[in-house]
Amino acid sequence: MAHEREEFVTIQYDGEGNPAAEPAELRVKAGTRVTWRNDPGHDHPFTLDFDLRVPEPGEPRRRLESRREAGVYQASIIATPGPAASAAPQAQAGPPEERYAYEVRVGDRVADPAIIIQR
What we know:
mainly beta, Immunoglobulin-like, globular, 49% strand, 6-stranded mixed beta sheet, 5-stranded mixed beta sheet
């Protein structure tokens, strides 16, 4: 399914195999498809472990695992902020943006980027 907005995060690797996300902090609007994929030439399975929850629709979970698609390991979500915590009318929409810290894991190596979702 094609989405109006799409952003990519590239998982890059240094000379010792340590992963890093580029960009390290991605700011997107709610409803944007976000796809993490490996840097060309470094195709390793990876997981994304979120501090709170994976910011996507559906059952809450904390881990997103990459899958091999189109010849490369990648993982995608539709960026969805969490539900508003308060029932007050001015707070119904929640804060204007939410920050989701996560770890990129490749074996025992880790990077600590974040995604920020604007409502």
